[in-house]
Every structure is written in C-alpha cells, then in structure tokens.
Amino acid sequence: MKILLVEDHADIAGVIFDYFELLGHTMDHALSGTQALNLVEDNHYDVVILDVMLPKMDGMTVCKKLRENGVDTPVLMLTAMGEREDILSGFDHGADDYLVKPFDLKILEARVLALNRRRTGQVSVRELVFGELRLSLTSHVAVRRECQFTLNPSLFTVLKLLMARAPLVVTKEELATALWGDDEPEGNVLRSHVYQLRNLIDKPFEFGYIRTVPKIGYQLVDKPSGAE
C-alpha cells in the first residue's frame, strides 16, 4: 500500500512514517498542504493520513481541495480537536475517517487498512482497468496515460463490454445487443463505433488495444494489434 502522510510535526511524522514503513508500506511525507496537493497530483496513493493543524493551509482546506480536484483517495484526518463539531467539520470537508490525538498506532493501522479495503471494493465497481487503460463507470471517462476521453453512450457501451470481457473476444452480436437490443440499425454502424473508439484510445499511441477477430467480433489485447 502507498500512503501519503501530511504532518508538520517532525516527531509525530517520524513515528508514523517508520511504523508503516516497517510494515512494508511505501511512504511519502509532506510538511505542508501545498506540498501534499502537489504530491497527490503527481502520484497515486491508496490512503492519505492528513493532520488538521498545518501551517498556512490547514488540513480541512487541503481535503476540500482534493475533493474539488476530483481526487477520491481515502483521507484519514489526525487532530487534537476532538469536539463533535470538529469531527463533523472534517467529514463535511471530505474526510473518510477521523482520529483524535493522542492515538494508538495499532488503531491508526487498523483504520488505514479498513479504508484501503473499502476503496478496493469500490474501485472494482466504479472503474475497469486493462493495461494502461482505465474506464470510469460513473463519469464515462476513459484514461490512457495522461490523456482523458469523455465517451458518448455508444462508445462507452462498446468499451465497457470489451474491458469487462478482456482479453476474451466479444462477438459482434453481443455488442449489437448491448447497443440496440433487437433494433440494430442497418449498415456498418458498429464498425463505425469501433473506428471512433480506436481513434480515441489507440491511434495517439504506439500500439492499439482493440483487435478485430475476422467474422466474429473484437477483443482487447495487451500487445500491438494489427489494423482492422
């Protein structure tokens, strides 16, 4: 698991950092809110441990900015403020859990692991992944490397089925049923959809994922594919 610790107190940060590193986790450490936002922008983290009392930009603001930027990484807030209103404010700003200082490291570990398990379950429902290609099932956005593509309903349906079955072949009949039910239009509309999809997710890159299986259908492959 890769964890970002955002804590400006050196002693507390050192204890938490060493504890999780000894457990085999990969750790990054940010001393400020600005540094944390930059690290999250450039890296993928499974959990963020975020202190509330940070200099200049406090943890509440950091968490709010993460959510505004579309980051859904679980955030566990650490704070010395244990009043009911403080805890509720943390959740209102987008935190997933809240731990009041001083705390037991085993309790912190248990909560971090629970957040990661919860996220793993969500990702399997909300996102499909094949190689470097990701598809959000909620926003209909496909991502390959640094490129994002918002798909129309037809292209989303085609890619979703291909990714869900990958690397197995999806027949033309299965794709047509998913797109139109029993009212498939005349002409090569399906082929046109696949062509558009290739132009988005394959053409800008050195190899294409979508492979045509002649007279049968299409599949996603994790090695260079030939042209249609």
From TrEMBL:
GO terms for molecular function: phosphorelay response regulator activity; transcription cis-regulatory region binding. InterPro entries: CheY-like_superfamily (IPR011006), OmpR/PhoB-type_DNA-bd (IPR001867), Sig_transdc_resp-reg_C-effctor (IPR016032), Sig_transdc_resp-reg_receiver (IPR001789), WalR-like (IPR039420), WH-like_DNA-bd_sf (IPR036388). It comes from the Bacteria. The modification 4-aspartylphosphate is found at residue 51. It holds the Pfam family Trans_reg_C. PANTHER family: REGULATOR OF RPOS. Gene3D superfamilies: 3.40.50.2300, 6.10.250.690, Winged helix-like DNA-binding domain superfamily/Winged helix DNA-binding domain (1.10.10.10). GO terms for cellular component: cytosol; protein-DNA complex. Residues 125-222 bind DNA. Residues 125-222 form the OmpR/PhoB-type domain. SMART domains: REC (SM00448), Trans_reg_C (SM00862). The lineage of its organism: Bacteria, Pseudomonadati, Pseudomonadota, Gammaproteobacteria, Vibrionales. Residues 2-116 form the Response regulatory domain. It comes from Enterovibrio norvegicus DSM 15893. This is DNA-binding response regulator, OmpR family, contains REC and winged-helix (WHTH) domain. GO terms for biological process: regulation of DNA-templated transcription. Keywords: DNA-binding, Phosphoprotein, Transcription, Transcription regulation, Two-component regulatory system. The keyword Hydrolase does not apply.
